Every structure is written in structure tokens, then in C-alpha cells.
Amino acid sequence: MARSSVTRLGELERAVMEHLWTHREAGGGSLTVREVHETVGTQRELAYTTVMTVLDRLAKKRLVMQERDGRAYRYSPVSTREELTAQTMRETLGDLEARDRKGAMLHFLDDASPQEIDELKAALAEIERRSMTTSGSTSSSVGVRRFRRV
Amino acid sequence: MIFATVLVALALVLAWPVPRVLARMTTFRRAPRAALVIWQSVTIAAVLSALAATPVVLLEIGEEAMEGPGSARALATVGAVLSGLMLARVLVSGHQIGTRLRATRRRHRDLVDLLSNAPEVRNELGDPQLCVLQHAMPTAYCVPGLRSRVVLSQGTIDALSAAEVGAVLAHERAHLRERHDLILEFFSVMYTALPPILRSPEALSEVRLLAEVLADRSAVKAVGPVVVARAVVTMAGSSAPDAAMGVGCSTARIRLDLLHEAKRPLILLSLLMFGFAALALGAPISIVVAGWTTR
Asked: Averaged over B22-36, what is the pLDDT?
């Protein structure tokens, strides 16, 4: 129950961010809760207060900027989708507080230097050669489970 | 006093020389699961010896200490303080690392969910965990936890063949399925709990390598060693050049060389290694029992 409401909130955050981004890309300025509710909210039959909560959560996560305009708040994305993607990628590459981040995510591969890459290519050629001699012409049959002995 | 002294000596040996020797036992990488069991049992045995030393001292001195010479009482007090400090450090470091890891992962998962394709699409793809970031630089990783994610960038999908993407996914899913993050977290906690002079960074990186070797094995089972090797080499060749830091021997190279091992389990070596792990863990326990019974 709690879990499904969490994923639902996450899904609404997506929808609202999506809307704010497309609005921005189309050259629009910041939006009020009512304006967001009129598009995203009515499509999904959401209450006005739900949209307000979602925008508030996004502001707390510093994904949207909240500025006061008279009695209402206006919201706009802090960064574009591309900027946020680049930022997310950078976070995992560990250029900031590398030690802290290390272990938070498990990467397929650490970084290799150009010299190492040459060595790796040589090692790969060796592996390919070895598998050619053991399994004949089928070495390139990728994705097939192999239980043959070496 | 003999049992307590042996326990303290054991704790020191297990904390300092043993991890350094173990990290050099490259043969152990050919049986990565058994190797991880050894690392865990040695670490737990070291902590157990350090924590058990005080109660055993008290046990051995017993009533004598209370009316005996002041030096014995002082020794017991010092031991108790040391054990208490050790316990406190483990608890504090466990709490700090755990909270920080979970906060980082939660925040990152939120971002990835926001930026990748919608959950409905992911469900249709047959994998609700898989997120694709729209970025040209190849990267692949997983965010462990209860609501785990496997994250690929579009650059990875473009750079690799379908089978190689399969290798990467099998690798990351193995990390998640076997909860390698918990094993690594355990070692990070123990590492930071130790006083800096006793820490062994080589132990930490060896354990990380073993987790990668284990995940590679799952990938080899799924798509064969050649495809995994190609995936490793392509991913290594396409990462950001400025991010290359050249830390010692290339782990990618070691992993490539071990890919063929996945096909033939080394039963005898594994059995010997499990035996050693049991021995290491049994040592402090039997000393405590001996101390108790010969009272």
C-alpha cells in the first residue's frame, strides 16, 4: 500500500517534470499550480492539492524553482532534461567526493587508461583465439549457453 | 592471562598481516565465492577476538583481580576500554556508512527514474528495473537496495552489440541478486572502524574485485566468455579519458584473464578455502570456550 503510493508519487513527479520541461522547451515561462493542474491534473483526474504536493516535493528536491508571484507560486525546472542527465551521469563517475560515492553504485567497469586498453585488446584477441580453437567455427554464435569443456 | 593474550595476538594477526597476505593470494580469485567467504570469516574472527579479549581477561583473573595486585586490575580495565572502543567504532561506522549509502542511492534512484523511460514502458520491456539514460557516454551500473535499478546510458546501447548488452545486464543483475552491495558495505564498515594504521586498502580493493569476478561469472553463464570479454574491452575503451586515474594493475585485465575459469569450478581449491575460512572463524571461538572451561 505504502509502496504503491510511493511509486505513484514518483510517477506523478515524472509527469509534472515532463510537462514543465516541454513547456520550457516550447519557450514558455514558469507555471502556477493551477496551470499545471489544468493540463497534467485533469488528464489524470488529480486533485488540485495533489498537484501542489507534487510540485512542493520537486521544489524540496531542488528539481524545480519556486518563486512567489502575488498570492501564488510559480514553478519552473531548475535545469533542462539534458543538463540533469549529464549531472546524474557525472555523479556516478565519482569526480566529486569519489570515496563517498564509491560503493553507492556498482559499476560494470572502472576507468581504464589508454595504455591499459591496448593490453585489454591483446587479451581479448587471445580469448577469441582460444575459443576458436576449442569450439571451432561456432565461436561467434553469441548468446548461446555453452557447456563444452575447454 | 594466557587465553586473553592469545586472543589479543590473534586479533592483531587477523587484522594486519593476514589481509595483506590474502590480498596477494591471486589464486583465490579463481574461486571467488570461497575467497569472499574467507575474507568475511577472517574479518569477523578479528572483531570477535578483539571483543572477546576483555570478558576472557575478567574470567581468567576472576576474583583475584578484585583483591589482587593493582596491575592486574589496571590491565583488565585497559582491556575493557579497548574492547568497548572497538565495539563503539564498529557501531558508529556502520550507522554512518549505512545512512550515507542509502541516502545517496535513494536520491540517485529518484533522478534516474525521473530521467529514464516510464515504468510502464520498462514493464513492457520485461524489466521494470532497467533504466536508460539519454546520454552519449557509455556507462553501466546498478543502484542496489530494495527498489534496485540497473542503469545503462544510450551510449552503452549504441556501442555494444545486443549480446554484449546482455552480458552487461547479466553482470549487473548478478550484483543485485546476490546482494554484493551488502558484502561490500560490511567491509567498508570494518575498514573505517579500524584505526588508520591497521587498515588495509588492498583488502578492500581485492574484495571489490572478487564481487566483479563473481558477477562476470553470471554473465559468462548467460552469454559465454567471448561476448563478456568483448563487452569489457569495449566499455573500457569508451569511458571518459580524463576520468582515467591508473590505480595500480588494471582490474579489467584481471577480470578478462579469469573469464575462462568460470567454466571449470575448482572443487578442491574451494574446499580447502572453505576449510581455512572455518578454521579462522573457529579459532577465537575455541579459545573463548577453552578459557571458559579451564577456569
From this structure: 94
**Rounded Cα distance, B125 and B116, in Å:** 13
Of A89, A101, A112, the CB nearest to B244: A112
Please answer yes or no on whether A110 and B251 come within 8 Å at the CB atom.
Answer: yes
Q: How far is CA B270 from CA A97, B19, B34, B37, B259, in A?
A: 37, 18, 6, 10, 17
- Can you point out the beta strands (E) in chain B? 130-133, 140-143, 149-153
Residue B264 contacts A, CB cutoff 8 Å = yes
Q: What's the CA gap between B135 and A83, in Å, rounded?
A: 10
CA-to-CA distance for B102 and B182, rounded, in angstroms? 11
Residue A70 neighbours by CB under 8 Å, 6+ apart: none
CA B234 to CA B110: how far, in whole Å? 29
Pairs of CB atoms within 8 A across A/B: 180
CB of B266 less than 8 A from some CB of A: no
Residues in contact with A74: Cβ distance below 8 Å, sequence separation at least 6, in sequence order? A29, A30, A31, A32, A66, A67, A68
User: What pLDDT sits at residue B242?
Assistant: 42
Q: Looking at the complex, does the CB of residue B196 fall below 8 Å from at least one CB of chain A?
A: no
- Among the listed residues B43, B153, B250, B82, the one whose alpha carbon sits nearest the alpha carbon of residue A85: B153
Using alpha carbons, list the distances in angstroms from residue B199 to A52, B15, B101, B163, B192. 50, 8, 20, 41, 8
Instruction: Find the helix or strand (DSSP H, E) in which B123 lies.
Output: helix B119-124
Q: Which of chain B's residues have a Cβ under 8 Å away from the Cβ of A145? A: 221-222, 224
Contact B1, B285 (CB under 8 A): no
- Tell me the H-state helices in A44-137: 48-60, 81-93, 98-101, 114-135
pLDDT of residue B249: 52
Per-residue pLDDT tens listing for chain A (150 residues): 444 566 678 889 999 999 999 999 999 889 999 999 999 988 888 999 999 999 999 999 999 999 998 888 999 999 999 999 999 988 776 544 454 556 788 888 876 677 788 888 988 998 898 888 765 444 444 444 433 333
Task: Give dist(CA B76, CA B70) in Å, integer.
Answer: 10
The ipTM is: 0.80
